[in-house]
Write a structure and sequence with these properties.
mainly alpha, two-stranded antiparallel ribbon, 14 helices, elongated, protein-macromolecule adaptor activity, Peroxin-3
């Protein structure tokens, strides 16, 4: 989560833009009207992109890593149940499999390290489309902020035809990605991490099938909706935004919207939003059925 937070924060930072506006206000000729307008538009797009990107990435990584652990746990149980070899052969098999398991689990870092630029660009495109008609002077209530966030999420997913959003989470070549992870973290090519290509590809193939299923899509959408509502509740508490039909000017809300990204990207043991996702009954039910290798029902 640290790498994800660092990348999103650095790429969608608005501090330099707000400093530019302050300078323009202090010096009447520092910015032309067009420069001022363009700067505000960039702040608008980046503020929403930052928070919605954080929301989607945190939610999907939380769900994805649990899919990985569940699939891996099921395989370990079945392997143990079918084991008929002696202790020495079993120990060698366990060592071999452990390397494959590490390679499988390290692919959870693919979005933060390998696909973050393309992902942010895609989300920013969705935010730009949704926000293009919204003016800085427009009053926005909490309900309108929530609907704006949900519209950006919906458009982002709609732009990902044929479940192409999966490419942001799962590498096309899992073994190569695992090798890159090993080199980047240890400083050398630990080829032992890639001994079990067949098993690794099998695990990744099963993961793709799960992510592409209607059942996963269902818990993903429910989780995103739940988190979006919680985030806007936090915004309301911080900003004191009046309820509809009144509200605050969009320009006033933008720095507060951007700030919502920080708690979304806290480490899992401190992240209340991850805890909310984990405690959702429908999420628990999905993983129970997944472990049992039964099709989840909704």
């Amino acid at each position: 989560m640290h790498q994800l937070c660092e990348n999103i924060t650095s790429q969608l930072d608005i501090s330099k833009l707000t400093d530019k506006l302050r300078q323009g206000k202090a010096e009447s000729r520092a910015l032309t009207p067009k420069e001022k307008y363009d700067t505000w538009e960039e702040i608008k797009i980046k503020s929403f992109t930052k928070t919605v990107s954080s929301m989607w990435a945190m939610t999907l990584l939380s769900l994805y890593t649990r899919v990985q652990v569940t699939i891996l746990g099921r395989h370990l149980y079945l392997d143990f149940a079918r084991a008929t070899h002696g202790a020495q052969l079993q120990e060698e098999s366990d060592t071999f499999s452990e390397n494959g398991h590490k390679s499988f689990l390290t692919t959870a870092d693919y979005l933060p390290t390998g696909k973050i630029n393309a992902y942010i660009m895609h989300m920013q495109h969705a935010a730009t489309e949704v926000l293009k008609e919204k003016q800085l002077k427009d009053l926005m209530s909490t309900d309108e902020v929530l609907q704006t966030v949900l519209q950006i999420l919906d458009l982002f997913m709609n732009l990902c035809e044929d479940n192409s959003w999966i490419k942001y989470l799962v590498p096309d070549d899992a073994s190569v990605q695992a090798q890159l992870m090993a080199v980047s973290t240890s400083g050398f090519d630990d080829s032992s991490l890639l001994n079990d290509f067949r098993k690794l590809e099998q695990l990744m193939a099963e993961t793709r099938v799960v992510l592409a299923s209607e059942d996963f899509r269902n818990i993903m959408e429910r989780s995103l909706r739940e988190i979006a509502e919680m985030v806007i509740e936090d915004l309301t508490a911080q900003a004191g935004i009046p309820s509809a039909p009144s509200g605050l000017p969009l320009a006033t809300l933008l720095p507060r919207v951007a700030h919502l990204s920080s708690p979304l990207l806290e480490e899992p043991n401190k992240n209340k939003y991850i805890q909310i996702i984990r405690s959702m009954p429908e999420v628990e039910l999905f993983y129970t059925f997944l472990y049992a290798n039964m099709p989840p029902e909704t």
